[in-house]
Design brief:
It contains no helices and twelve strands. It has strands spanning 10-13, 18-22, 25-30, 40-41, 44-49, 56-60, 66-70, 79-84, 89-101, 109-117, 120-125, 129-133. The N and C termini lie far apart (35 Å).
Length: 135
């Protein structure tokens, strides 16, 4: 081995996201439109090192005029603000389970994303937004 250390490389593939760890650096690459399993990460257009934990964004998906930012992960929770069509809020790069929802124009789900827009920080319904990571 000429004095070189070989690091183990592992690859995990699912139907919604592909993760690869190479030399201790997490790489993420996959379009994500299917519902997440337990924890879900935002998609990227090109594989890149996951070094910026808050480089993810949300915008209302096509057919949704605005998405409310809520205090808790529930459609009955107090709205703190909203992101209108054509606007973009910063978001967490992971989604988590909360109250289920079935809203016109949105995918039926129970996943929520932590988001901030114009000083309001709370939860947006995953199925109502386009969620992405800049590359």
């Amino acid at each position: 081995m000429n004095g070189r250390r070989i690091r183990r490389t592992s690859i995990v593939a699912t139907s919604t996201v592909t993760l690869a760890t190479i030399a201790g650096t997490l790489l993420v690459a996959a379009p994500v439109q299917a519902a997440p399993d337990r924890t879900h990460t935002a998609p990227v257009a090109v594989a890149r090192a996951d070094t910026s934990p808050n480089a993810c964004y949300v915008t209302p998906r096509s057919g949704v005029g605005a998405v409310k930012i809520r205090k808790a992960k529930s459609v009955t929770s107090t709205p703190l603000g909203q992101i209108n069509k054509g606007q973009r809020g910063t978001a967490s790069c992971t989604a988590s389970e909360g109250g289920s929802y079935s809203v016109s124009g949105c995918r039926k789900s129970n996943y929520w994303i932590r988001a901030t827009y114009r000083g309001a920080t709370g939860w947006v319904a995953w199925g109502c937004v386009d969620w992405y990571r800049t590359s």
